[in-house]
Amino acid sequence: RRARPVREVLFFPSRPCCIEALLAEAAEPGAPARPCPCPLPSVDTALSRLVRRLLSARRSLDLCLFAFSCPQLARAVQLLHRRGVHVRLVTDAQYMGLHGSQIGRLRHAGIQVRHDQHSGYMHHKFAIVDRRMLITGSLNWTTQAIQSNRENVLVVEDAEYVKAFQDEFERIWEEYNPASYSF
Amino acid sequence: RRARPVREVLFFPSRPCCIEALLAEAAEPGAPARPCPCPLPSVDTALSRLVRRLLSARRSLDLCLFAFSCPQLARAVQLLHRRGVHVRLVTDAQYMGLHGSQIGRLRHAGIQVRHDQHSGYMHHKFAIVDRRMLITGSLNWTTQAIQSNRENVLVVEDAEYVKAFQDEFERIWEEYNPASYSF
Known about the structure:
The structure is a homodimer.
Chain A: E1 7-12, H1 20-27, H2 46-55, E2 60-65, H3 71-82, E3 86-91, H4 103-108, E4 112-115, E5 125-129, E6 133-137, H5 143-148, E7 151-156, H6 159-175
Parallel strand pairs in A: 2-3, 3-4
Antiparallel strand pairs in A: 1-7, 2-5, 5-6, 6-7
């Protein structure tokens, strides 16, 4: 039986938390949990809920992110990539090189990244899991935003909204094709 | 009969457009349209749709905006205030004084404004019309974002999502009560 569509609203700031158990379970389901030596609690927070939603990806993850510097979220994305999930990432050219950006690391891991060449910002902050679940809001994927800002994220499993954002993603993905870059 | 709930996705950049006809109709419904001398076309754009949704307010408009410098949107909000709509505005302390900010003008017009006292940003960008319609996304209310950035705005008439954001608004509104400011 099909589960009820996900409808969730996450508000930030989120208290800092350890997501090692979530990552370990996603990397090796059913493996015995090893305690993490870090001092952070493994508790249910807005961040842990966001990570859980991302880690639910089985086939594809399309990311359209103005700023991506949070190492915890980058680890989740890398894990999905290693697990065979098809990850595509669109980001902003002016922000991808800033201090702490995770874009280089993700590219190095083999993840496809495309960026704009405009003076305007690629200011979206959304993710689409398995072309089925939309994660969108005000939150840039930075530790500062997660831990310090007032932010919102909607998680929506609704074909109409997902399609609108998926279409926008595909438009941008094509427009930012490196074959079309001008120098 | 109750109309079907609004479900709309707006993508930006929006081409520049004239919203004088929309404002005039909202200020004086049914009055004969006077042509605007500005060179911009009065066409259907993401901006004009956003303005229409805002101008549909009859009783209340709750705004929770990181940055608000777009004069066109400020005029729409002022018009609602003059029309007797109860407008409340929460904004970010670090951004409200920046060049071009409309916050001073809105305060001067008699609109209640509250802001944070934190180092973290009040980074939300949402509006709630008549406690019934949620307008939220990546878009800061700046002309730069509207005309130059890739942005999204969801318009959602869905009691569950509206309640979550209305509760967040009320929490912030109380927390930012000037009676609690410390100096």
